[in-house]
């Protein structure tokens, strides 16, 4: 698993906002439509779709979500979602590009509006609310939420449901919604970046934070050993790739690519690389 120390996490905050288009390796021979999307049994079926940029699968994401997508110390966009989007694009005969960093709560509206990005693969949970605006691929990863506190604290979860408690979250996420539903008396602090929230808990500015469990586990292992997971919240979430309802052929082609990536072992390889396990 690629590691990031605390200094690199802080650097990511500045770098991500100015990151240029990040290219992913893929086939150089790309076309706007494809008739060779493979299914798991290697049969071909024609799929027609539109792309913002011919031959390129363009993705929009919030680039501070390690280990899914983040800017490394060399200024490269890396992570599980980056490798997965690269594999999907290769199966489709495309290259892929990542747009500059964008706030998480703007990703679904960007796909719905169209014209800027084809997809958002960014640790986006499939929810009924989001399905009102965009379509999603088949799920590609399971997740839950995590309640983070200082390791030195003696909080129980119920202690955090109080007006004098500040709980950080990333704006517009399922963690944000969980706080509102389950700790309504606490002061919710929505932030654009998860690292800022983790640092706030570390310094005592916030008493807790709710974020996706895989992200919490990665950040605690790499940069925040002074924090701990107070509770794993079994929300039973599934990540999907957001696609416009106006582009059903693209969703079909992505699903075909995902099926092949699952069947040929690529998905397990990527999970092992970034999470140290395939059980996710």
Number of domains: 2
H/E topology pattern: HEEEEEEEHEHEHEEEHEHEHEEHH
The termini sit apart by: 15 Å
Task: List low-confidence stretches.
Answer: 1-46
- Please compute the radius of gyration using only Cα atoms: 19 Å
CATH homolog superfamily of the largest domain: Periplasmic binding protein-like II
Structural class, from helix and strand content? alpha+beta
Short key terms for the protein model shown above:
single chain; 280 residues; alpha+beta; D-Maltodextrin-Binding Protein, domain 2; 2 domains; 5-stranded mixed sheet; 3-stranded mixed sheet; 9 helices; 25% strand
Question: Could you explain the architecture of this structure?
Answer:
There is one protein chain. The protein is of the alpha+beta class and 280 residues long. It folds into 2 domains: 171 residues, Periplasmic binding protein-like II (D-Maltodextrin-Binding Protein, domain 2, 3-Layer(aba) Sandwich), CATH 3.40.190.10; 93 residues, Periplasmic binding protein-like II (D-Maltodextrin-Binding Protein, domain 2, 3-Layer(aba) Sandwich). The strands form 5 sheets. The chain has a 5-stranded mixed beta sheet, sandwiched between helices. Strand 2 and strand 3 form a beta hairpin. The longest helix has 16 residues. The chain starts with 5 loop residues before the first helix and ends in a 5-residue tail after the last helix.
């Amino acid at each position: 698993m690629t590691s990031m120390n605390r200094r690199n996490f802080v650097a990511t905050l500045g770098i991500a906002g100015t990151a240029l288009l990040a290219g992913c390796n893929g086939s150089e021979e790309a076309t706007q439509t494809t008739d060779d999307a493979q299914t798991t049994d290697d049969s071909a079926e024609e799929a027609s779709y539109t792309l913002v940029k011919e031959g390129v699968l363009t993705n929009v994401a919030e680039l501070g979500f390690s280990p899914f997508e983040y800017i490394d110390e060399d200024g490269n966009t890396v992570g599980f979602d980056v490798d997965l989007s690269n594999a999907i694009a290769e199966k489709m005969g495309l290259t892929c590009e990542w747009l500059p960093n964008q706030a998480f709560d703007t990703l679904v509206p960007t796909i719905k509006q169209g014209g800027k990005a084809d997809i958002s693969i960014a640790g986006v949970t499939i929810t009924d609310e989001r399905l009102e605006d965009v379509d999603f691929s088949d799920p590609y990863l399971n997740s839950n939420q995590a309640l983070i506190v200082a390791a030195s604290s003696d909080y129980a979860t119920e202690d955090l449901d109080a007006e004098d408690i500040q709980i950080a979250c990333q704006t517009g996420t399922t963690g944000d919604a969980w706080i509102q539903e389950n700790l309504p008396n606490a002061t919710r602090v929505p932030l654009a970046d998860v690292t800022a929230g983790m640092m706030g808990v570390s310094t005592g500015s916030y008493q807790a934070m709710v974020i996706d469990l895989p992200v919490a586990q990665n950040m605690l292992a790499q940069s925040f050993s002074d924090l701990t997971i107070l509770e794993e919240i079994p929300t039973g979430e599934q990540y999907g790739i957001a696609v416009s309802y106006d582009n059903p052929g693209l969703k079909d082609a992505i699903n075909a690519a995902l099926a092949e990536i699952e069947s040929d072992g690529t998905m397990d390889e990527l999970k092992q690389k970034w999470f140290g396990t395939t059980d996710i």
